[in-house]
Amino acid sequence: MQLYNTLTRKKEDFKPIKEGSVGLYTCGPTVYGYPHLGNMRTYIFEDLLKRVLTYNNYEVNHVMNITDVGHLTGDRDMGVDKVERESAKTGQTAWEIADFYTTAFKEDLKSLNIIFPNTFCKATDNIPEQIAMIQTLEEKGFTYKITDGIYFDTAKVADYNKLSHQKIEDLREGARVEINAEKKNPTDFALWKLSPTGAKRQMEWESPWGVGFPGWHIECSAMSVKYLGEQFDIHCGGVDHIDIHHTNELAQTESATSKKPWVNYWLHSAFLNGIGGKKMAKSSGDFITVTNTFTEKGISPLVYRFANLSVHYRKPMEWSEEALISAKNGYENLLVKISKLGQKTGKLSLEYKDKFLADINDDLNMSKALATVQELLKSDLSDEDKLATVLDFDKVLGLNLRLETKADIEIPEAVIEILKKRETARQNKDWKSSDELRDEILKLGYQVTDADAGQEIKLI
Ligand code: AMP
Ligand code: ZN
What we know:
By secondary structure, the chain is an alpha/beta fold. Helix content is 44%, strand content 16%. The structure holds adenosine monophosphate and zinc ion. Adenosine monophosphate binds next to helix 1 and strand 10.
């Protein structure tokens, strides 16, 4: 199995630390608002990765954090806490805000058929672990104190830029957008922020440095080490995390544990952009969600999952009405084709399984895997064998093929029989019979149209 590693910028053979098992950490949501479709692109990619690993017989131990404290409006520890800010706006407590949006996030995961991690861990449930890691960093001389908190001195880490591959100077330049004159280096970041004098925060804790709250990056370092150990296999997130969040997680964890590498494979998914390439961002407010794009319009959210299978995770993806329609047609077409196979399963085709494995093990080439599914459906295997094989592939695709084909498009046996005859007529270019069979189908209440991918059917 090959995966593209951001750390080496190469596709590499995947070798786990412990044979047969994988430790996987994926950065979770900051729970101050609804997740948008862009966020969900990253979680779908991570779910596919996990399913591919499982399909390859690895036992995956997956941990995801919930950021309920410490993520400030500025990425460089300036500004205000996003959860507390939402609380001030709405009058709900910070804890209520975090709970509410954590539930909303989990609902989105469910609707997209994303398998839950083995462990969800909240930053606020792991404060002592974060304090302990900061203390270790302090003992080892990596920290310094300024007016608003304890900071990590990035100049002490020679390979600070190894994940981003940017020159240190460029990283520093990028960091200058947020100026804190007391920091030794622009890239330095907060480990512990002190509560502002005279103002009481809702989420704050005692610490050896005074009452305050953890910086955003330390939670992932402390919790991943707690749940997966000081060294583990894979760490994921969206590409926006490479230069700041993951670079800082990496610098502080390896400095605290003195073990390298902390993580062997770093995988990042490209953005979902709005029309014209504009990044979809939670902070901009003008974003679309699973609920308002799909559920409320009576469209299955799995259409979005299908759309994500069609674009490689490292390529930017553009979202538009056309993209939605095309994914909807593609998904429904697939369901129709599978419905036509009937309900009886036969034998798994090893030939197609090998092809499918080669696709997914090539850095998750899911669009090629979808093409293999189409090839399988067109092949001369029996319907039973096709069904058994495609349902096996669905362990990775996660498109609910069995349930969706049964529940949503119930095509009566009689119609399926006519569709099959019509398919043969079409292949033989017998257009007269094909038209007659179309009329027969119409009499039974179904409309059939011919698309590139084959016959499409819907209720009239
Ligand atoms: P956040 O809740 O903002 O911390 O982001 C949660 C996850 O979504 C992170 O892994 C981000 O990298 C990812 N993300 C944010 N915006 C987008 C986007 N437009 N497309 C894809 N992933 C994104
Ligand atoms: Zn993280």
